[in-house]
Amino acid sequence: MNNNEKKTYLIDMDGVLVHGERPIPGAKDFIQRLEDGGHKYLILTNNPRYTPLDLQHRLNASGFNVEARHFFSSAMATANFVQSQKPNGSAYVLGGTGLYQALHEVGYSLTDYSPDFVILGESDSYSFDKLIRACHLILSGVPFIATNPDPTGPSETGIIPACGAVAALLEKATGYSPYFVGKPNPLIMRLALRYLNEHSENSVMVGDRMDTDIKMGLESGLQTILVLTGVTERETIKKFPYRPQKVVDSVANIDPDDF
Protein backbone atom coordinates (compact mmCIF):
# COMPACT_ATOMS: atom_id res chain seq x y z
CA MET A 1 0.00 0.00 0.00
CA ASN A 2 1.51 3.36 -0.96
CA ASN A 3 1.04 6.43 1.18
CA ASN A 4 -1.55 7.98 -1.13
CA GLU A 5 -3.88 5.03 -0.52
CA LYS A 6 -3.80 5.33 3.25
CA LYS A 7 -7.01 6.63 4.76
CA THR A 8 -7.07 9.96 6.55
CA TYR A 9 -8.87 10.00 9.92
CA LEU A 10 -10.89 12.83 11.48
CA ILE A 11 -11.46 11.99 15.13
CA ASP A 12 -13.74 13.50 17.74
CA MET A 13 -12.01 13.93 21.10
CA ASP A 14 -14.41 13.79 24.06
CA GLY A 15 -16.11 10.41 24.32
CA VAL A 16 -13.80 8.96 21.67
CA LEU A 17 -10.24 9.46 23.00
CA VAL A 18 -10.91 10.77 26.50
CA HIS A 19 -13.54 11.20 29.18
CA GLY A 20 -12.50 14.51 30.69
CA GLU A 21 -8.85 13.98 31.64
CA ARG A 22 -9.14 10.18 31.62
CA PRO A 23 -7.99 8.35 28.49
CA ILE A 24 -10.36 5.78 27.06
CA PRO A 25 -8.71 2.33 27.21
CA GLY A 26 -6.96 1.56 23.93
CA ALA A 27 -7.19 5.14 22.60
CA LYS A 28 -3.46 5.84 23.01
CA ASP A 29 -2.66 2.67 21.09
CA PHE A 30 -5.08 3.70 18.32
CA ILE A 31 -3.29 7.03 17.88
CA GLN A 32 0.02 5.17 17.84
CA ARG A 33 -1.30 2.85 15.10
CA LEU A 34 -2.17 5.92 13.02
CA GLU A 35 1.32 7.32 13.57
CA ASP A 36 3.09 4.03 12.86
CA GLY A 37 1.01 3.44 9.73
CA GLY A 38 1.68 6.88 8.28
CA HIS A 39 -1.97 7.94 8.29
CA LYS A 40 -2.89 11.63 8.23
CA TYR A 41 -5.24 12.51 11.07
CA LEU A 42 -6.85 15.43 12.87
CA ILE A 43 -8.55 15.52 16.24
CA LEU A 44 -11.66 17.69 15.88
CA THR A 45 -13.20 19.63 18.76
CA ASN A 46 -16.15 22.00 18.88
CA ASN A 47 -14.61 23.75 21.88
CA PRO A 48 -13.05 27.02 20.62
CA ARG A 49 -11.49 28.13 23.91
CA TYR A 50 -8.17 26.36 23.55
CA THR A 51 -5.23 26.72 21.18
CA PRO A 52 -3.71 23.64 19.53
CA LEU A 53 -0.85 23.85 22.06
CA ASP A 54 -3.38 23.88 24.92
CA LEU A 55 -5.07 20.80 23.44
CA GLN A 56 -1.72 19.09 22.95
CA HIS A 57 -0.89 19.72 26.61
CA ARG A 58 -4.26 18.32 27.68
CA LEU A 59 -3.82 15.05 25.77
CA ASN A 60 -0.12 14.76 26.62
CA ALA A 61 -1.08 15.05 30.30
CA SER A 62 -3.47 12.12 29.73
CA GLY A 63 -0.64 10.03 28.30
CA PHE A 64 -1.06 10.61 24.56
CA ASN A 65 1.82 11.43 22.24
CA VAL A 66 0.12 13.95 19.95
CA GLU A 67 1.59 17.12 18.44
CA ALA A 68 -0.30 20.43 18.20
CA ARG A 69 -0.54 20.14 14.39
CA HIS A 70 -2.99 17.26 14.80
CA PHE A 71 -5.74 19.41 16.35
CA PHE A 72 -8.47 21.36 14.57
CA SER A 73 -11.03 23.36 16.56
CA SER A 74 -14.20 25.30 15.77
CA ALA A 75 -12.13 28.45 16.44
CA MET A 76 -9.70 27.51 13.65
CA ALA A 77 -12.61 26.65 11.36
CA THR A 78 -14.28 30.00 12.11
CA ALA A 79 -11.06 31.90 11.39
CA ASN A 80 -10.63 30.06 8.08
CA PHE A 81 -14.26 30.71 7.18
CA VAL A 82 -14.22 34.48 7.78
CA GLN A 83 -10.86 34.77 6.01
CA SER A 84 -12.43 33.08 2.96
CA GLN A 85 -15.40 35.45 3.10
CA LYS A 86 -13.48 38.68 3.68
CA PRO A 87 -9.68 38.33 3.64
CA ASN A 88 -7.75 40.29 6.28
CA GLY A 89 -10.91 41.75 7.73
CA SER A 90 -11.87 42.72 11.26
CA ALA A 91 -14.11 41.31 13.95
CA TYR A 92 -15.65 42.15 17.29
CA VAL A 93 -14.98 39.01 19.31
CA LEU A 94 -16.42 37.52 22.48
CA GLY A 95 -14.37 34.45 23.30
CA GLY A 96 -11.21 32.93 24.65
CA THR A 97 -7.56 32.55 23.74
CA GLY A 98 -8.15 29.86 21.12
CA LEU A 99 -10.43 32.08 19.06
CA TYR A 100 -8.29 35.20 19.41
CA GLN A 101 -5.15 33.32 18.30
CA ALA A 102 -6.88 31.64 15.36
CA LEU A 103 -8.16 35.00 14.06
CA HIS A 104 -4.76 36.67 14.49
CA GLU A 105 -3.11 33.83 12.56
CA VAL A 106 -5.28 34.46 9.48
CA GLY A 107 -4.57 38.19 9.59
CA TYR A 108 -7.76 39.43 11.26
CA SER A 109 -7.78 42.54 13.42
CA LEU A 110 -9.99 42.74 16.51
CA THR A 111 -12.01 45.90 16.99
CA ASP A 112 -15.32 47.26 18.23
CA TYR A 113 -15.36 50.00 15.60
CA SER A 114 -17.09 49.07 12.33
CA PRO A 115 -16.04 45.40 12.33
CA ASP A 116 -16.82 43.11 9.41
CA PHE A 117 -18.22 40.43 11.75
CA VAL A 118 -19.40 39.88 15.30
CA ILE A 119 -17.92 36.53 16.34
CA LEU A 120 -19.06 34.67 19.45
CA GLY A 121 -17.02 31.85 20.97
CA GLU A 122 -16.58 30.33 24.44
CA SER A 123 -15.35 32.23 27.47
CA ASP A 124 -14.83 31.71 31.19
CA SER A 125 -16.85 34.89 31.70
CA TYR A 126 -18.82 37.08 29.31
CA SER A 127 -18.73 40.78 30.08
CA PHE A 128 -22.26 42.21 30.02
CA ASP A 129 -20.87 45.40 28.48
CA LYS A 130 -19.42 43.34 25.62
CA LEU A 131 -22.76 41.57 25.13
CA ILE A 132 -24.46 44.97 24.89
CA ARG A 133 -21.88 46.15 22.35
CA ALA A 134 -22.40 42.95 20.35
CA CYS A 135 -26.16 43.58 20.35
CA HIS A 136 -25.69 47.13 19.06
CA LEU A 137 -23.35 45.98 16.28
CA ILE A 138 -25.65 43.14 15.20
CA LEU A 139 -28.64 45.50 15.17
CA SER A 140 -26.63 47.91 13.03
CA GLY A 141 -26.23 45.19 10.39
CA VAL A 142 -22.90 43.55 11.24
CA PRO A 143 -23.08 39.81 10.34
CA PHE A 144 -23.27 37.50 13.37
CA ILE A 145 -21.15 34.32 13.50
CA ALA A 146 -20.77 31.79 16.32
CA THR A 147 -18.13 29.09 16.61
CA ASN A 148 -20.39 26.24 17.78
CA PRO A 149 -24.03 25.61 18.71
CA ASP A 150 -23.41 23.59 21.90
CA PRO A 151 -25.80 25.00 24.55
CA THR A 152 -23.83 23.61 27.51
CA GLY A 153 -20.37 22.35 28.35
CA PRO A 154 -18.71 20.47 31.20
CA SER A 155 -16.72 22.04 34.01
CA GLU A 156 -15.26 20.93 37.32
CA THR A 157 -18.39 22.24 39.03
CA GLY A 158 -20.86 20.68 36.58
CA ILE A 159 -22.68 21.79 33.43
CA ILE A 160 -22.22 25.45 32.41
CA PRO A 161 -23.77 27.57 29.63
CA ALA A 162 -21.75 27.39 26.42
CA CYS A 163 -21.65 29.25 23.10
CA GLY A 164 -25.07 28.10 21.91
CA ALA A 165 -26.78 29.42 25.04
CA VAL A 166 -25.12 32.84 24.79
CA ALA A 167 -25.89 32.93 21.07
CA ALA A 168 -29.55 32.35 21.96
CA LEU A 169 -29.42 35.36 24.29
CA LEU A 170 -28.03 37.59 21.51
CA GLU A 171 -30.51 36.17 19.01
CA LYS A 172 -33.43 36.86 21.36
CA ALA A 173 -32.20 40.41 21.97
CA THR A 174 -31.55 41.27 18.31
CA GLY A 175 -33.81 39.00 16.26
CA TYR A 176 -30.79 37.86 14.22
CA SER A 177 -29.64 34.22 14.15
CA PRO A 178 -25.91 33.48 14.03
CA TYR A 179 -24.20 31.32 11.45
CA PHE A 180 -22.70 28.40 13.39
CA VAL A 181 -19.44 27.12 11.89
CA GLY A 182 -18.78 24.12 14.15
CA LYS A 183 -20.35 20.67 14.27
CA PRO A 184 -22.85 19.58 13.03
CA ASN A 185 -22.18 22.00 10.16
CA PRO A 186 -20.29 19.92 7.54
CA LEU A 187 -18.26 23.07 6.80
CA ILE A 188 -15.90 22.35 9.72
CA MET A 189 -15.13 18.94 8.23
CA ARG A 190 -14.46 20.34 4.77
CA LEU A 191 -12.19 23.00 6.29
CA ALA A 192 -10.36 20.32 8.28
CA LEU A 193 -9.80 18.28 5.09
CA ARG A 194 -8.53 21.38 3.30
CA TYR A 195 -6.18 21.99 6.24
CA LEU A 196 -4.75 18.51 5.59
CA ASN A 197 -4.87 18.90 1.80
CA GLU A 198 -6.99 15.74 1.73
CA HIS A 199 -10.23 14.61 0.05
CA SER A 200 -13.46 13.28 1.53
CA GLU A 201 -13.42 10.04 -0.49
CA ASN A 202 -10.10 9.10 1.16
CA SER A 203 -11.20 10.00 4.69
CA VAL A 204 -12.97 8.45 7.67
CA MET A 205 -14.86 10.21 10.49
CA VAL A 206 -14.66 8.59 13.94
CA GLY A 207 -17.15 9.89 16.49
CA ASP A 208 -19.51 9.01 19.32
CA ARG A 209 -22.58 11.02 18.27
CA MET A 210 -25.05 10.03 15.59
CA ASP A 211 -26.56 13.54 15.38
CA THR A 212 -23.26 15.38 14.84
CA ASP A 213 -20.22 13.22 14.00
CA ILE A 214 -21.94 10.57 11.88
CA LYS A 215 -24.44 12.94 10.27
CA MET A 216 -21.68 15.38 9.41
CA GLY A 217 -19.44 12.64 8.01
CA LEU A 218 -22.26 11.26 5.90
CA GLU A 219 -23.17 14.70 4.50
CA SER A 220 -19.52 15.38 3.68
CA GLY A 221 -19.01 12.13 1.79
CA LEU A 222 -16.72 10.43 4.33
CA GLN A 223 -16.85 6.88 5.59
CA THR A 224 -17.98 6.83 9.22
CA ILE A 225 -17.19 4.83 12.35
CA LEU A 226 -19.34 5.15 15.48
CA VAL A 227 -17.74 4.28 18.82
CA LEU A 228 -19.84 3.33 21.82
CA THR A 229 -17.62 4.92 24.48
CA GLY A 230 -19.48 8.25 24.39
CA VAL A 231 -23.14 9.28 24.37
CA THR A 232 -24.58 6.74 21.91
CA GLU A 233 -25.73 3.23 22.81
CA ARG A 234 -26.07 0.48 20.22
CA GLU A 235 -29.86 0.21 20.57
CA THR A 236 -30.37 3.95 19.90
CA ILE A 237 -28.74 3.79 16.45
CA LYS A 238 -31.92 2.42 14.87
CA LYS A 239 -33.78 5.61 15.83
CA PHE A 240 -31.86 7.50 13.14
CA PRO A 241 -32.66 7.34 9.40
CA TYR A 242 -28.97 6.89 8.53
CA ARG A 243 -26.24 4.47 9.63
CA PRO A 244 -22.47 4.58 10.11
CA GLN A 245 -20.40 2.25 7.95
CA LYS A 246 -19.07 0.60 11.09
CA VAL A 247 -19.96 0.42 14.79
CA VAL A 248 -17.26 -0.55 17.29
CA ASP A 249 -17.10 -0.71 21.07
CA SER A 250 -14.18 1.75 21.10
CA VAL A 251 -11.27 3.06 19.02
CA ALA A 252 -9.29 0.16 20.53
CA ASN A 253 -11.12 -2.01 17.97
CA ILE A 254 -10.20 0.08 14.91
CA ASP A 255 -7.47 -1.06 12.54
CA PRO A 256 -6.69 2.07 10.48
CA ASP A 257 -5.88 -0.10 7.45
CA ASP A 258 -9.28 -1.85 7.44
CA PHE A 259 -10.93 0.89 5.36
Overview of this structure, please?
The protein is an alpha/beta fold and 259 residues long. It has 2 domains: 3-46 and 184-253, Rossmann fold (3-Layer(aba) Sandwich); 77-180, HAD superfamily/HAD-like (Rossmann fold, 3-Layer(aba) Sandwich), CATH 3.40.50.1000. 34% of the residues lie in helices and 19% in strands. The protein is built from 8 helices and 15 strands. It has helices spanning 27-37, 52-61, 74-85, 97-105, 128-139, 163-174, 186-196, 210-219, and strands at 8-12, 18-19, 22-23, 41-45, 71-73, 90-94, 109-110, 117-120, 144-146, 152-153, 160-161, 179-180, 203-207, 223-227, 246-248. It has a 6-stranded parallel β-sheet with strand order 5-4-1-13-14-15, sandwiched between helices. The longest helix has 12 residues, at 74-85. The protein starts with 7 loop residues before the first strand and ends in an 11-residue tail after the last strand.
Q: Helicity range of the residues?
A: 25-40%
Low-confidence stretches: none
CATH architecture of the largest domain: 3-Layer(aba) Sandwich
The main β sheet shows up as:
6 strands, parallel
Give helix and strand order, one letter per element, not per position.
EEEHEHEHEHEEHEEEHEHEHEE
Integer count of domains: 2
End-to-end span in angstroms? 12 Å
CATH topology of the largest domain: Rossmann fold
Side by side, the strands of the main sheet go 5-4-1-13-14-15
Shape: globular
The number of helices is 8
Structural class: alpha/beta
CATH class type of the largest domain: Alpha Beta
User: What is the fourth-level CATH superfamily of the largest domain?
Assistant: HAD superfamily/HAD-like
